[in-house]
Amino acid sequence: MSPSPEVRPHPGVWAEIRRGTLPRALAAAVRPGLTISAPCTGVMLLSAAGLTNGRPCTTHHRVRPDLERQGGVVKDARVVDDGDLVTAGGVTSGLDLALWLVRRELGADAAIGLEGMLEYEARGTVWHAAPDRR
Predict the structure, then answer these.
(1) Cα(49)–Cα(24) distance, rounded to whole angstroms?
(2) 40, 43, 74, 80: which one is catalytic?
């Protein structure tokens, strides 16, 4: 079990959660038409803002229990798309998150073109609640 953000020994996302500035800004940013996304433990900032409460999401495997305790509905997927909230697992899954958003918003050809430019092929499971817009 992971310790709460208040007792974590390392700076970074936990320090930002304690500071509260980013969670407050993220909570205030929610508006129609805006998609908010984050990979890895950045998802915990979204959780601190209340944005993952009761919603399908994922994060780095080591903090999934924290995300679940804070009300996130954790899915076992590399990328989780719940419409205006898109989250991803570990830091390298940020590439898959970006490729998924390109595919979702611009289509498969754009995503395949970006994969070629990056010399990276999307991998892993994408869980999505919204209708497949590919």
Answers:
(1) 6
(2) 40
